[in-house]
Specification:
alpha/beta, two-stranded antiparallel sheet, Spore Coat Polysaccharide Biosynthesis Protein SpsA, Chain A
């Protein structure tokens, strides 16, 4: 058996629902890098890990559907941020864990995904969050679906920081080196060249 099949199944959420402000308002997941939209790179990485691939998008659903099993969108129309996408993903997920990744990190690799999942299996009741050096990366995480209620409570109390809720739930670090190139975030046009 390979490592993928040795781990329990997880749902995967790709976050592509933002305004794209740093991209000049362009839909970031559909911006091309190396001849393909960023969402295609993310989809190809995670597809072997799940039969429940969810994309959070607030624009262009007809284009995103080609890359997902299901789409979700924010329940507010003013682009309230990634926390809203995570809430929607938690509500839609069918497996015990939800792996959350941004659409604009095309250098992520299967070693990182496997490491997150192995760490989650060892700490079943806690979320796992990437930590790059001393910097936490809340949009690279795995959340037990059993913690969905905590996200809803924090949201209803006005919380909009995924890191806050993940930390409050005792998130376990999946440690990466500072400057790990896999974690490069391609969120401005100049980074795509």
């Amino acid at each position: 058996m390979n490592a993928i099949s040795d781990l329990p199944p997880c749902s995967v959420l790709l976050l592509a629902g933002g305004r794209g402000q740093r991209m000049g308002g362009r839909d970031k997941g559909l911006v091309e890098w190396r001849g393909e939209p960023l969402i295609a790179h993310a989809q190809r990485l995670v597809r072997p890990w799940t039969d429940d691939l969810i994309i959070s998008c607030n624009r262009n659903p007809e284009r995103y559907l080609a890359y997902a099993d299901r789409l979700v969108h924010d329940d507010q129309s003013d682009f309230p941020g990634p926390y809203a996408g995570i809430r929607a993903g938690l509500a839609a997920a069918v497996h015990p864990w939800l792996l959350v990744l941004p659409c604009d990190a095309p250098l992520l690799d299967s070693g990182l995904i496997e490491g997150l999942r192995i760490t989650a299996q060892a700490h079943r009741d806690k979320p796992v969050m990437v930590r790059q050096g001393e910097q936490w990366e809340p949009l690279l995480c795995i959340i037990p679906l059993a913690q969905s209620g905590a996200f809803e409570r924090d949201w209803n109390e006005g919380q909009r920081s995924p890191r806050y809720t993940l930390s409050r739930l005792g998130a376990v670090a999946f440690q990466c080196d500072a400057g790990d190139p896999r974690l490069a975030n391609f969120n401005t046009p100049d980074l795509l060249t």
